[in-house]
Amino acid sequence: MAMMRLRREDPRVVGAFRLHRRLGAGGMGVVYLGADKRGQRVALKVIRPELAEDQEFRSRFAREVSAARRIRGGCTARLVAADLEAERPWFATQYVPGPSLHDKVAENGVLPAAEVASIGAALADGLVAVHEAGVVHRDLKPSNILLSPKGPRIIDFGIAWATGASTLTHVGTAVGSPGFLAPEQVRGAAVTPATDVFAFGATLAYAATADSPFGQGSSEVMLYRVVHEEPDLGGVPDALAPLVSACLAKDPHERPSTVQLSERLAEIAAREARGIGAPRVPRADGIPKAAGPRPERPVGRRAEEYAQQRTERRTGPGSSPTGARSSAARQTGAGRGVRTPAPRPPAARTAVRTAGRTPVARPGGAKRRLLRQRLFVFVFVTLIAAVCIAALQGCHHF
């Protein structure tokens, strides 16, 4: 994380902490690197004066800090101290050394599937703790994830709801960042833990592709895409694509839970680390399971045409209607995944049994062929000899 020198207007001491460097600034306030008398380093955010004068903001800020105190777990920046009654309210969280996920991808490029899955599993664990504390992050994104030597850490949880300039604000909606907002946030509906799951999926897609799954553009364009268009997951590794797609479902009820995400991503990380690919296998919990590489699949209208072509190839021009129906049933998953072969007529079964067999030579066949060859050679040599003798006798008469 980049550090800057303190400016003339910056405070030198806040509460029990001495400030040393500037870490950044946003619509909510300025973040400083500070330390207490024991040397414990913190990231301390001081609220802007204009916000400090807003009583509604102070009330909302107090609720968010109270909820943040309840968060337990090692995947978040722990809240260390706060003063809600100060002239300029402030709060201090554990300082997390290391770059943000956004900066790492911007500097080094996309991350491999195993690393994306490993980071995702740890973040999902962190979100479990956040949601159990009754907090919804509301602004989960790559720049709010710090990659420390001990693992990824989520910062600005729950507090980002009150920010202004650093995030996008619309009347009647919660704040957030274009490309990582959930559709319900754009519409101004109530946020839930599923809202964070949507942002989580967009964050994983960014780590794997170095771009938002909804591309780039103005705020209005991005928000329209989030609500009305499907995400572009073309660059996401096959092992992660189905899980990311499930997180980005438009309907919050169709998204997986953070517990499911943690379990599945841990499995994917282990498999990818061992170099074991796997085709997609449906799971009972509704989350597609990655179990190896798969060929590229068509989508949309191409998928329908592809399925129809496969059905025609399976049934064939001479197949019976019963066989066609059985083939179609197998493709649509009838019978809860149990594949029951279509009955074949006796002639078809006979053809299947005999088709492709290699003829086996009977005993004695090779000997008979050898005898015929020898007999042909003997007759041919005898005729040649007779012709030669007759020619010699003719020469003696002359």
TrEMBL record:
Q: Which residues cross the membrane?
A: 375-394
The protein's name in its UniProt record: Serine/threonine-protein kinase
Q: Where is the composition biased (Polar residues)?
A: 317-330
Q: Per the record, which residues fall in region Disordered?
A: 276-364
The record's annotation in Gene3D superfamilies points to: Phosphorylase Kinase, domain 1, Transferase(Phosphotransferase) domain 1
Which InterPro entries is this protein grouped with? Kinase-like_dom_sf, Prot_kinase_dom, Protein_kinase_ATP_BS, Ser/Thr_kinase_AS
For the Protein kinase domain, which residue ranges apply?
17-268
Keywords for this protein:
ATP-binding, Kinase, Membrane, Nucleotide-binding, Transferase, Transmembrane, Transmembrane helix
Q: Where is the composition biased (Basic and acidic residues)?
A: 294-315
Which top class of enzyme applies to this chain?
Answer: transferase
Q: Which residues bind ATP?
A: 45
Q: Which GO terms describe its molecular function?
A: protein serine/threonine kinase activity
* Superkingdom of source: Bacteria
Low complexity compositional bias, start-end: 337-362
Q: What is its EC number?
A: 2.7.11.1
